[in-house]
Amino acid sequence: MKLLGNNSISTAISWILFFLFVFFAFHVIYEMFGYGISYYNLKTGNKILYNTFYVGNTIDWGNTTATGNTYFRFKYPFSDQQMVTGVFSLEMFLNQLLQFSFYTLFFFSAFKIFNGMSQEILFNQNVIQWLKRFSLLNIIFVPLSVLNWLYNFKSHFNLDILLIIFIHFLLGIMVYFIVEFFKKGMDLQHQADFTI
Description:
- With 196 residues, the protein is an alpha+beta fold.
- It has helices at residues 9-44, 90-117, 125-153, 159-195, and strands spanning 53-61, 64-75, 82-87.
- It has one domain.
- Strands 1-2-3 form a 3-stranded antiparallel beta sheet.
């Protein structure tokens, strides 16, 4: 099986990335819907979809019952499987929104790149544009992560956060160099087309 072009490994990878994009997009939409329902229930005392989107002052957390804050627990639709649990706050909402939105865009951009590489002409403007967007997305994620961590958690950085920030920054810079490589390849391809 060939790496690039129609019916290639890049086509298979693009489909995997598309399914990851759909999975994360579902999470963003479903979680935002859950936060909206939970906020409405909390402010009005209603119990709309209460078994799926629980919000209250006590919650079973592992083998203990946590009290003292307002907690939430979202379950996947039509199941008892827990999706996310935590302290119900604006900070948690913003953190989840940033993380899931970023990875939704991350996988969508990666899907568009690999889908473009599945075409017969590898060096095309569409792939270059999506590589640029992917690069900028990773670079912009770095300061947003720092601000998110400082605003929402107000604590010192730990090694995990620094490692994630470094990986995305490095990925953004590397892809930016790959964009220049693709531009050169496209120029050479145009020159070869004119010579023929």
